[in-house]
Amino acid sequence: MSEMENAPGQEPPAGSQSLLRGLQLVEILSNFPNGCPLAKLSELAGLNKSTTHRLLQGLESAGYVTRAPSPGSYRLTTKFVAIGQKTLSSLNIIHVAAPHLEALNLDVGETINFSTREDDHAIMIYKLEPTVGMIRTRTYIGQHLPLFCSAMGKIFLAHDKPANFEAYWQSHRSGIVKLTANTIVDHADMLHELAAIRADNYALDREENELGVSCVAAPVFDIQGRVPYAASISLSTARLEKIGLASLLGPLKETARRISAELGAQL
Question: Where is the HTH iclR-type domain positioned along the sequence (predicted)?
Fold first, then answer.
């Protein structure tokens, strides 16, 4: 069932069908930064071309969609960036965490990421580019990160209830596949990994999502002892091997501790 479909026996609210279909097109187009042909968009949405074209015209007239350079293709406009920034600015956590993350960025000089969990993925809500070197990661604010192969995702799995982890593992089993030779896809191996994360208070992505890129993450706790956020440092594996993991762990853990303290966590 797609995110736009209703549960069996549920009817969508009156007048909402076009809205839901339009939002579905927006979600699909978000995966095609260079534009998506009308025929492909229609196919992915499960709509006929005339309906898809009508919805696109409405989104285009409102300034949310524009024609892409490739003939017959459409892409999202930067209007969504403005909306996204307004949404993020309304999240108090950004105002709380940003000064600490900026200090970490200046301290270690590497890419700094901050995420929260949304359903069965982590979502990037803040990112700072490196101040040293020229390597930039492909992550971006708003990006969905898989839980099983990202450092921040594994933080959320490690601090979730065991029953919730088992439910996640079973429901996503078909999608838990090796993205690289290092991706953990065995259930027992993942349980061992999560136990180590809880014991050491940090998680590693050892090129499990992308070759050449490593990431180390730490949990951010709230007043109830939950882990609603995670902070991480991303860098090339070659640079990590050069500077050593220890040079990053101390500053990262201290940053996560300071943000946690502002959220009322007793550490």
Answer: 16-78
Position with higher pLDDT, 140 vs 231: 231
Q: What is the pTM of this model?
A: 0.72
Same domain, 236 and 145: yes
Our measurement of the distance from residue 252's CA atom to the centroid of its chain's CA atoms, rounded to an integer in Å, reads 19
Dihedral over alpha carbons 75, 118, 217, 87 (to 10 degrees): 60
- Is residue 141 within 8 Å of residue 124, measured between CB atoms? yes
User: For the residues 59-75, what does the mean pLDDT come to?
Assistant: 93
User: What is d(CA 134, CA 90) in angstroms, rounded to the nearest whole number?
Assistant: 31
122 and 160 fall within a common domain: yes
Nearest of 202, 228, 227 to residue 215 by alpha carbon: 202
**Sheet architecture: strand order including 121-128:** 144-146, 121-128, 111-118, 229-236, 213-220, 203-206
In this structure, the answer to whether residues 66 and 99 fall within a common structural domain is: no
Do 212 and 133 have their domain in common?
Answer: yes
Helix or strand (DSSP H, E) at 163? helix 162-171
Distance CA 146, CA 148 (A): 6
Look at residues 154, 157, 142, 219 and name the one whose alpha carbon lies nearest to residue 182. Answer: 154
Q: Classify residue 11: in a domain, yes or no.
A: no
Structure-token match 């990994």, residue found: 193
- Is the domain of 129 the same as that of 217? yes
CA distances from 115 to 73, 132, 136, 256 (A): 32, 22, 18, 12
Q: Do residues 158 and 196 share a domain?
A: yes
Do 150 and 191 lie in one domain? The reply is yes
